[in-house]
Design brief:
This protein is of the alpha/beta class. The protein has eight helices and 15 strands. It folds into two domains: 27-113, Roll (Ubiquitin-like (UB roll)); 129-260, Cytidine Deaminase, domain 2 (3-Layer(aba) Sandwich), CATH 3.40.140.
Amino acid sequence: MRKVEITKYDLTTKTSKKMVDYVAEEKPLHIFVNTAYWATILCSPLNLKEMAVGHLLSEGILKSTEEIREVELKEKEGTCHVKLQPAINLEERLSLSRLHQRIVTSACGDQSIYQYQRKPAKVTSNLTVKADVLFNAVNQLNFKAEVFRQTGGVHAAALYTADGTLVAMAEDVGRHNAVDKVIGMAALKQTCFSECFLASTGRLSGDIVFKAAKVGLPIVASLGAALDSGVDMAEAANLTLVGFVRGKRMNIYTFAERILS
């Protein structure tokens, strides 16, 4: 967060006053895999190592954290170098990727049309979650999100177990980045993704579902709306998609059997 001076105008009293407020920060992070430039992500400057790891997992460059030899973050330079084990064929991984040498903006995430060109990973999980556990988990996000409370300028994402235990939580100016951060946090703790669900404050688009399916998350739920690309991707991935989790209701778009009454 950054402190700024503002002029606050009140339309009711028609008065203004000088005051201090907080705005969310956005910085570029340049990710390199071994010596290869991968992408530049515009993001909140928090949990950057975790975001880099989660991003590479959710994009399929990494299959597990065991493939990582070292993660070197240089915050002043805005770079993160992820070095892989020697046995990994990086060129082959990069050639199969949908994203390479791109700038990923916080506003839109990846703007490719991959959701119409590539099939997501199939999720296999026996996870079921009670509806009230899911509701409480999603609706706690903005209350737990400190940067959001002070700026209103970020998204939050979190991973929970079936009983509502928090595994990881992160905030970012980009909803995709927040998801990558919690994936990275959980992966570095050797969390079993098939036993967790993802909660988010952002729209449920195809790319969010793609990321979740890639690491094996069976349920994705949000305060926000689902897009048609998200629904189509969830159908193809065998993933339960839940939107508008608020006001004591929720819309379950796919595989409703995982949500229990």
